[in-house]
């Protein structure tokens, strides 16, 4: 046999005897989770541009789980509608209401697990300076008009249970404040962080915040029914990581600096 042919045969035999070379190790696909949130600044929790404690927490969750969150900033009622339609994988930060179970899944299932919350916030009463309307923690007194709240906010259910006149026609807390000052509302129910902003802002000299909160409640990342059904393990990992990150020393340091602690 020709030496060249022998050489070729030897090379072929050698190649066949060697284990197949492993392809270059491909990185495992990163889970992309699409989240929507309300299109307005709600410090210290979040800003439209991705600042605040909610985003700091979720960034640490991403790093812990090696996943990626895609964010969409849209009006709140549309965000919840997209969640219900499974057009996004989740929405934040959402307080608990029984009828919101139709929209998506809370951590803990039937028994909502508050330990897996993103944060706690409260609703408070703002009135025009010098007004007589009052709130004693159980009922309103000297109410001579409607109580305003932001469109789609859960505090509306609390107010309606009081059998008071309500106004849900505002998207933003500063709109409520201007309605108050103009005499178009008797009072406004706003989130604690929004109230803090108002009482530090240019409208503050014309406003008063009542000392007793209407309600205090936890706020969650809720996930779509479709995501929890298709990726239950990932959903559970995300909620556990939120609890772990929120309790971590690194996050608590950020929270203290941003003024988000209660």
Question: How many beta-strand elements?
Answer: 11
Main sheet? 9 strands, mixed
CATH architecture of the largest domain: 3-Layer(aba) Sandwich
Structural class: alpha/beta
Number of domains: 2
- CATH fold-level label of the largest domain: D-Maltodextrin-Binding Protein, domain 2
Overall spatial form? globular
Q: Low-confidence stretches at least 5 residues in length (pLDDT < 50)?
A: 4-27
Measured on Cα atoms, how large is the radius of gyration?
Answer: 26 Å
- N-to-C SSE string, H for helix and E for strand: HEHEHEEEEEHEHEHEEHHH
- Assess the beta-strand content as a share of residues: 15-25%
The CATH homologous superfamily of the largest domain is termed Periplasmic binding protein-like II
What's the N-to-C terminus distance?
A: 88 Å
Percent helix range: 25-40%
Keywords: Signal
Signal peptide: 1-26
Domain Solute-binding protein family 3/N-terminal: 32-262
Organism: Duganella aceris
């Amino acid at each position: 046999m020709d030496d060249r042919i022998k050489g070729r045969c030897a090379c072929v035999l050698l190649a066949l005897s060697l284990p197949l070379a492993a392809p270059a190790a491909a990185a495992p696909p990163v889970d992309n989770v699409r989240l929507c949130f309300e299109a307005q600044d709600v410090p210290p929790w979040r800003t439209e541009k991705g600042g605040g404690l909610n985003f700091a927490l979720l960034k640490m969750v991403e790093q812990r789980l090696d996943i990626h969150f895609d964010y969409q900033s849209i009006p709140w009622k549309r965000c919840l509608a997209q969640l219900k339609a499974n057009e996004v994988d989740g929405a934040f930060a959402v307080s608990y209401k029984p009828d919101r179970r139709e929209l998506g899944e809370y951590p803990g299932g039937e028994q909502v697990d508050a330990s897996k919350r993103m944060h706690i916030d409260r609703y408070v009463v703002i009135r025009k300076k010098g007004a007589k309307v009052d709130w004693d923690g159980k009922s309103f007194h000297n109410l001579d008009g409607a109580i305003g709240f932001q469109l789609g906010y859960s505090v509306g259910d609390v107010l309606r249970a009081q059998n008071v006149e309500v106004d849900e026609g505002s998207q933003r807390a500063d709109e409520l404040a201007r309605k108050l000052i103009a005499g178009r509302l008797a009072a406004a129910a706003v989130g604690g962080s929004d109230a803090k902003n108002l009482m530090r802002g240019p409208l503050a000299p014309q406003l008063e915040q009542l000392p007793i909160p209407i309600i205090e409640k936890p706020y969650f990342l809720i996930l779509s029914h479709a995501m929890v059904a298709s990726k239950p393990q990932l959903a559970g990992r995300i909620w556990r990581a939120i609890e772990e990150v929120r309790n971590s020393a690194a996050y608590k340091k950020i929270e203290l600096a941003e003024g988000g602690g209660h």
